[in-house]
Write a structure and sequence with these properties.
CATH topology: Rossmann fold
Helix content: 40-55%
Number of strands: 5
CATH class: Alpha Beta
Strand content: 15-25%
Shape: globular
Distance between the termini: 22 Å
CATH superfamily: HUPs
Number of domains: 1
CATH architecture: 3-Layer(aba) Sandwich
Radius of gyration: 15 Å
Strand order of the largest sheet: 3-2-1-4-5
Order of helices and strands: EHEHHEHEHE
């Protein structure tokens, strides 16, 4: 089974990864896990005045921070994974990556780091549900 874990470093991402670890038996003997982080692009004005190396370092640092807890949890449990990093709109990018990669399921937290955390369901989770053709497991 191919599992895509959408990760942004939030407490809800931690809950999603812990759910995966606790229930890994339901995903088959050796699930193929991919941790995906999608970083929204910097505004065009910012990228116009910053060196490309500075922008790339920013994206790399933010991705490293966002995936750190999920990676530690999987490594502690000796569960293999691979990483993917994208820049774009998180909701649509996650859905498109899941379809293109032919994943069996997307696992993600119900809310993320965004400003709309207090809604019933986070804006990224809502967008993934609306656009994804792959089953989505939302963990609170």
């Amino acid at each position: 089974m191919k599992i895509l874990v959408a990760a942004d470093g939030s407490i809800y991402t931690r809950h999603a990864v812990k759910f995966l670890v606790r229930n890994r038996g339901m995903f088959g003997a050796k699930p193929e896990i991919c941790l995906l982080h999608v970083r929204p692009p910097l505004p065009g004005r910012a990228t116009a005045v910053l060196a490309k190396s500075t922008v790339n370092r920013y994206y790399s640092d933010e991705t490293r921070k966002a995936l750190a807890t999920a990676k530690r949890t999987l490594e502690r449990e000796r569960i293999g994974y691979r990483e993917a990093h994208l820049i774009g709109d998180p909701g649509t990018a996650i859905a498109a990556y899941a379809k293109k990669g032919r994943f069996s399921v997307v696992i993600m937290g119900s809310h993320g780091q965004g400003a709309l955390r207090n809604l019933v369901l986070g804006s990224v989770a809502s967008k993934v549900l609306a656009n994804c053709r792959v089953p989505v497991l939302i963990v609170r």
